User: Which sequence fits this backbone?
C-alpha cells in the first residue's frame, strides 16, 4: 500500500493535477480496476461551475480521519491515510475544484430553485401515483353499455376548446346611481308593487264591510307603509317579535310606533293579496302557484334582466320555512327548516346573486315524459344558453345524459356529484373495496367529453363526481385531491350562502298563508340582490375612492328611511286629530323636532291643565314644550346644576 505525506502538498497551488498524474500508476500497481479508474478520471474532467479557494477545499478534505479509518497509522512526517480513503477524498476534491474553475459565474437562484422544486415535484408525483388506481383493462363498461376509458382521451392540442371561455363582464346590466332605493326598485319594480297594492286595497274594501266604525286603521294602503316596515324588522332582527312587543316603545323603541299602530300593522298583514280573487280558481287549474304566480314571474324576470353572472354559477335548492297548509310543501330533514316550500334557483358563485328561480310544485311540475330534474335545470340555464359558463350542481340534478345535453346543445360545461346507482357507471368505479382501495385513493374514468373520479376520503366513504369542464385527471400537489373535487368545493355553496344571508336578516313572520310566506322570501331575495347591485355601482362610480360603501344592515336601514319618510311626513304627521305625544314622537324620529325654550311662557288667563276642574285655578303660565297652562303648584323649578 502506498502512502502519501499530506503536509508536502498543503502549500502547492495546483495539487489536483499532480495527484492525477502520480496516483494513476500507483493505483494500477496496487491492482485496482483500470477501466473503473479511467472512467472516474474522465467524469472528473467534465465537471465544474465557479472558482473557489483551493486551500480551503484541501484543508477540509485532508483532515484528521483517525476516528473513521481503522487502518490509520501515525508516522514521523505527520498523519497518513490509507489508499482507499485517499482515493475517495481525491475524487471529491477534484470534482469540486474542476467544476468551480470551468464556470466563472455563480449559479442563478432560479436554477437552484427549479432543481429543488423538480426534486420535490418528483417526490410528490411518486406519492400521487401511489394513490391512483389503474384498472388492468383499458375500458370499463356500465350497466347500459356506456363505455369508459381508463386512460386520458387524447385531444387536439392545436385547437383551443371553447368551453369556459366567457366574454361578458359580470355585474349590473345598466349604470345607475348607487342609491339604495333605486337599486331596490330595479327588482321590486313599480308594476309589481302596483299589482300588490291594487289587490290589497280590493281586500281592504271587502273586509271593511265587517266593521261598524271605520277609522284610520281601515283606510287604503300605500307602498311606503308596509314595505319599509318589513325591511326595518329585517335590519334590526325583530321579525320574530309579536306585534305587541314590536310596537312597545320600551322593548323596540319609537321607530315602529312612529310609522303606524299595531292594529293597522296586523290589519294590513291580514289583507295583503297578490292576485285577482275572482279568477283564481280558473288559474289554479293551470298552476298551483296561481295566488302569487304573476308577482313571482315579474320579480324573477327583473332579477335576470338587471345582472350578468360570472363564469361559474350554482344550481341548488332553497327551503322556505312553512308549516301551514300548502299543496306542494316538502320535508327535507337536512335543511335547517325541514318543512317548507322548495325553490330551485341558480346563483352567481362570485356575488351570490339569484337571477332565476322556480318553485317546486310537487308531482306534475314537469311535462309528461320529461325527467323533472332535466326540466328544472334546462329552465334555469335558459338565459345562459351559448355563453360557455360552468354550472355546478349536486347529485339530485346530476346525470350523464343531462351533462352531455348541456355541453352539446346549450354550450355549458358542468360539474357535480353523481349518485352511485346511475346505470352508466361501472361496478368497479363505485366499489369501495375494488383492488383493496386505501384512504385517499383515486380512480379516474374518461369518455369523449366526460371525466369521472371516484375518491375515498374515509375508510367507509366513497365520493363520486363527473365533470365536462375537466379533460384530465390532474391532482393537486398540496392537498392530494383531484382538481375536479377542488373546483366543486369552491363553486357549490352559492345558493346555501344566499339562503344563509336571507335567514340572517329576514323579513319573514309567522303566517298560515303560503303566498304571504313566498312574498316574504321575495323581499329577502330583493334585499340581497339589490345590495349586490349597490356594491357594484358604488365601486363602478368611484373606483379610486377611499370611501367605504354601506354595510348590508346600513343599506336596509337607509332603504327603510327612504320608503317610510315620505309617507310619515305627508300623511300621518299632518293628521289634525293625532295625539300631541305621538306627534312629538314622529318629530323626534324624523329629526324635525323644533327647539323650545326652557323658560315658561306667558299668555292669556286660563284654567290650569293639570289641576282638578273643581279647583278652578287660573294661571297665565304655559309649558314651553307642549304649551299647556300650568299653575304654580305644577311648575318645576331647578337650579342650573341639576339642569
Assistant:
Amino acid at each position: 500500500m502506498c502512502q502519501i505525506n499530506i503536509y508536502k502538498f498543503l502549500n502547492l497551488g495546483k495539487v489536483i493535477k499532480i495527484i492525477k498524474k502520480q496516483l494513476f500508476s500507483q493505483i494500477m500497481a496496487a491492482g485496482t480496476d483500470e477501466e473503473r479508474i479511467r472512467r472516474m478520471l474522465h467524469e472528473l474532467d467534465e465537471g465544474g461551475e465557479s472558482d473557489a479557494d483551493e486551500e480551503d477545499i484541501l484543508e477540509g478534505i485532508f483532515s484528521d480521519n483517525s476516528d473513521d479509518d481503522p487502518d490509520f497509522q501515525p508516522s514521523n512526517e505527520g498523519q497518513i491515510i490509507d489508499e482507499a480513503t485517499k482515493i475517495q477524498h481525491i475524487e471529491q476534491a477534484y470534482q469540486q475544484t474542476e467544476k468551480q474553475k470551468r464556470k466563472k459565474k455563480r449559479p442563478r437562484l432560479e436554477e437552484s430553485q427549479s432543481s429543488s422544486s423538480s426534486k420535490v415535484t418528483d417526490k410528490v408525483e411518486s406519492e400521487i401515483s401511489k394513490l391512483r388506481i389503474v384498472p388492468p383493462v383499458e375500458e370499463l363498461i356500465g350497466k347500459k353499455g356506456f363505455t369508459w376509458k381508463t386512460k386520458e382521451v387524447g385531444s387536439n392540442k392545436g385547437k383551443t376548446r371553447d368551453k369556459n371561455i366567457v366574454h361578458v363582464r359580470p355585474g349590473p346590466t345598466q349604470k345607475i346611481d348607487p342609491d339604495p332605493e333605486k337599486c331596490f326598485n330595479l327588482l321590486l319594480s313599480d308594476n309589481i308593487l302596483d299589482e300588490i297594492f291594487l289587490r290589497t286595497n280590493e281586500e281592504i274594501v271587502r273586509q271593511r264591510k265587517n266593521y261598524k266604525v271605520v277609522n284610520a286603521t281601515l283606510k287604503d294602503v300605500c307602498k311606503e307603509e308596509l314595505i319599509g316596515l318589513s325591511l326595518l324588522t329585517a335590519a334590526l332582527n325583530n321579525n320574530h317579535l309579536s306585534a305587541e312587543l314590536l310596537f312597545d316603545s320600551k322593548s323596540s323603541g319609537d321607530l315602529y310606533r312612529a310609522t303606524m299602530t299595531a292594529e293597522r300593522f296586523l290589519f294590513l298583514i291580514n289583507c295583503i293579496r297578490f292576485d285577482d280573487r275572482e279568477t283564481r280558481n280558473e288559474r289554479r287549474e293551470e298552476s298551483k302557484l296561481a295566488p302569487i304566480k304573476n308577482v313571482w314571474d315579474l320579480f324573477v324576470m327583473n332579477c335576470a334582466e338587471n345582472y350578468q353572472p360570472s363564469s361559474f354559477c350554482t344550481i341548488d335548492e332553497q327551503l322556505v320555512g312553512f308549516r301551514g297548509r300548502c299543496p306542494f310543501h316538502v320535508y327535507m330533514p337536512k335543511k335547517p327548516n325541514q318543512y317548507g316550500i322548495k325553490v330551485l334557483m341558480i346563483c352567481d358563485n362570485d356575488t351570490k346573486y339569484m337571477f332565476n328561480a322556480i318553485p317546486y310544485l310537487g308531482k306534475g311540475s314537469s311535462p309528461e315524459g320529461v325527467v323533472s330534474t332535466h326540466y328544472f335545470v334546462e329552465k334555469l340555464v335558459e338565459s345562459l344558453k351559448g355563453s360557455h359558463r360552468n354550472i355546478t350542481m349536486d347529485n339530485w340534478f346530476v346525470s350523464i345524459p343531462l351533462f352531455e345535453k348541456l355541453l352539446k346543445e346549450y354550450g355549458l360545461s358542468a360539474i357535480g356529484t353523481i349518485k352511485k346507482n346511475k346505470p352508466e357507471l361501472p361496478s368497479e368505479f363505485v366499489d369501495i373495496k375494488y383492488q383493496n382501495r386505501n384512504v385517499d385513493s383515486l380512480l379516474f374514468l374518461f369518455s369523449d367529453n366526460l371525466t369521472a373520479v371516484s375518491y375515498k376520503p374515509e375508510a367507509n366513504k366513497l365520493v363520486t363526481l363527473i365533470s365536462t369542464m375537466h379533460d384530465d385527471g390532474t391532482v393537486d400537489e398540496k392537498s392530494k385531491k383531484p382538481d375536479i373535487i377542488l373546483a366543486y368545493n369552491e363553486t357549490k355553496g352559492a345558493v346555501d350562502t344566499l339562503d344563509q344571508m336571507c335567514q340572517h336578516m329576514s323579513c319573514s313572520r309567522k303566517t298560515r298563508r303560503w303566498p304571504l310566506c313566498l312574498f316574504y322570501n321575495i323581499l329577502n331575495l330583493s334585499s340581497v340582490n339589490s345590495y349586490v347591485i349597490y356594491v357594484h355601482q358604488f365601486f363602478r362610480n368611484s373606483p379610486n375612492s377611499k370611501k367605504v360603501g354601506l354595510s348590508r344592515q346600513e343599506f336596509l336601514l337607509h332603504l327603510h328611511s327612504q320608503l317610510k319618510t315620505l309617507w310619515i311626513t305627508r300623511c300621518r304627521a299632518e293628521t289634525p286629530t293625532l295625539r300631541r305625544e305621538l306627534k312629538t314622537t314622529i318629530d323626534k324620529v324624523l329629526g324635525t323636532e323644533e327647539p323650545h325654550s326652557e323658560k315658561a311662557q306667558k299668555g292669556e288667563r286660563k284654567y290650569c291643565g293639570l289641576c282638578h276642574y273643581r279647583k278652578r285655578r287660573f294661571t297665565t303660565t304655559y309649558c314651553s314644550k307642549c304649551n299647556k297652562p300650568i299653575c304654580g303648584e305644577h311648575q318645576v323649578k331647578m337650579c342650573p346644576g341639576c339642569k
